[in-house]
Amino acid sequence: MTHILCKNQATFCENCIFIRATASSILQLRTDIPHLPLYSLRHKWERITKMSIPTKLLTDILMAVLFLLLMADRHTGNAIHEWLGVTLAGAFLLHTWLNRIWYKTLRRGRYDFSRVVRLILNMLLLLAILGTLASSVLISRTVFPFPGLRGELFARTLHVFCAHWTFLLAAAHLGIYGKRLQTAHGRRVRFTLPHWCSRASPVLCVVLAAYGAYAFLYRELIYPLTMNSAFMPWNGNEHMLFFLLDYGVIFFLCAGAAHMLSRLMRKRNAPVLRPAEAWD
Q1: Which of 31, 62, 182, 280 has the fewest CB atoms within 10 Å, i.e. the most exposed one?
Q2: Model-level pTM?
Q3: pLDDT grade, residue 49 (50/70/90)?
Q4: CA 62 to each of CA 39, 56, 167, 242: distance values in angstroms, whole numbers, following the listed order
């Protein structure tokens, strides 16, 4: 009788182990279902955003190009300028969606000096973009041709003011968060440059920074940045490429300055480890 009970208990234990293994396999299969194709549109989009480094890279490049083209409104014409602005608004929404995890981390972690500066920069950039979009609706003649709102001098002055600050703050934003341009699928992309190019790059950066400061003064950007002008200086005989070159170098100057300041702030906030802690 005891032998039969022991045999039944052993069989029961084997059955429990088999059921547990089967249930674990089913659960594992269920967790792998989202990785299967054609599961649902939601999981498809989640898979796209998880692999969003190339998408972020393309979005940032597109936005940088659009910023430059939008500053050349006299060369492109008003209709193209407004549709480029609509495209930039869509790219901004896509950029916000791809980086939506940043909004979830606002209530987490410790706010040191570097993080506070980045938060203030992002909030100012957001306000400048919203001001640019709101004022563009008031002075629009193609996309939003509302009667009685076109040609308002104050709205145009506000639009030029917000647009120039958006341009400079976006450059600073790119300089601080530009490390994603060197990443792809979470891994750093390494470019092998010739030896002479590596040695000449600091000199090239200094030359571009000096030319950027000259272009800033030559283009008289101090007036739209202080809301003292509703129009940009215009030279009808100037080629569009020279205009884009000047503004592109100004963009590079702001991005480079923000990048250097960000590195200094990270070094300042970096903890100093004792020799025993450096190996932990």
Answers
A1: 280
A2: 0.71
A3: very low
A4: 31, 10, 14, 20
Burial class from Cβ neighbours inside 10 Å (0-12, 13-18, 19+) for residue 43 reads: middle
Structural tokens at position 270: 């970096």
pLDDT at 179: 67
170 exposure class (CB count in 10 Å sphere: 0-12, 13-18, 19+): buried
Alpha helices (runs of H) in the chain, residue ranges in sequence order:
2-31, 41-50, 53-71, 73-76, 78-98, 101-104, 113-139, 153-177, 195-218, 222-225, 240-269
Tokens of 262: 């960000």
What is residue 37's predicted lDDT score, i.e. its pLDDT?
A: 45
The per-residue DSSP string of 113-137 comes to: HHHHHHHHHHHHHHHHHHHHHHHHH
Cα dist. 12→3, 18, 19, 22, 23 in Å?
A: 14, 10, 11, 15, 16
Cβ atoms of residues 68 and 248 within 8 Å: yes
Residue 22 token pair: 């089967």
- Phi-psi region for residue 238, left (φ > 0), alpha (ψ -120 to 50) or beta? beta
Least confident of 29-38, 109-118, 122-131, 181-190: 29-38
Containing 184, the helix (H) or strand (E) segment is strand 183-184
Q: With 50 as the cut, is the pLDDT of residue 89 above it?
A: yes
Burial class for 65, CB neighbours closer than 10 Å (0-12, 13-18, 19+): middle
Q: Percentage of the chain surpassing pLDDT 70?
A: 66
